[in-house]
Structure formats: C-alpha cells, structure tokens
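Sorry to interrupt, but I need a hand with the structure work. Could you add the entry underneath, on a fresh line?
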Amino acid sequence: MVTERAAWSERTAGWIRDAMDVELPMFGVCYGHQLMAHALGGRVDYLPGGREIGTQSIELTPAVAADPLALPASFRAHTTHEQSVLEPPAGTAVLARSARDPHQLLRYGPRAISTQFHPEFNAEVMRAYIRRKHADMRGEGADPQQIFSAVAATPFARRLLRQFSRRHGWTEATA
C-alpha cells in the first residue's frame, strides 16, 4: 500500500518527480496511479466504502474535452483496489470516474497519465482476481458470485494502453 511509505516506494516517488521534470512519458496503473499522485502532492488512502473489484462502468468527466484521449463517454474497465487517490495533486486533470471512485483516470502533464482501473487485464485475469479474493469479498459484505458473473470484456480500457504508447513513440519496432 502506498500509505505504508516503504523505502523502495518512496525512492520510486522521487524518480517519478524527476521523470516529470524531463517530461518522460509515464503511464501508471493501480499502485502506479496512486504512487504518481502521492509523488506529485496528492493524497492516497483507503477508498471509502471498501474494496472496488470487478468490471466497472467508467465515465469521462468534462475535463476530457481538453484532452487528446479518444474514449467514449462511458466504457467498462476492470478494477481491484482497496486504496485510491482521495485528493489529486494540484493542477491534475481528473478525466474519468466510477460510481465509487472519483479519480479513475488522471492527467498530470502532456506525457503523464494514470489509471486506477486495470487496462492491462482481460476478463479471465479479472475472474482470477475475484476467485482469489472471494473470501475477503464475502467478509466485506460483497457478493463475489454476482461480481464474477458481471465480468465483461473491456476493449476501450485496453485500447488506452495502445493509444498512449503510439502517441509517445513506442511501437513494436522500437521494443
């Protein structure tokens, strides 16, 4: 958890600040999302209401109108997290939210974004996480079977990674 302030994590937060100074392209996911926000002056802690897990509806905010992202007004994405960005850093654009987490997608600068959701997950990976967290979810009052049954494909969330890498110069030829 970012709030544990582990030495390696705090060193990485320093690296993030340095990377922002030279406008290095950065795409943070989940812990990376939280760590980027923490490194740049935001506040991270436990998500009110507990864990968010499963395929969620993500809704773009009006701030996305000034952003180069090409996403539909709402799309599905996979989530699994207990902590979240509770207060984004000053000057950060909040581009998308879910019903429980108002900071699902943040833009820190022209080459730096982060997502609380998991654009790298496919439906089978999401199901594996739900199977693994089944007992915790039940203990928290959630219905793991209902959440498992609602897992769906997330093509727009997955497209976000490709869109970011193409925009910032990564191709299979440069890998």
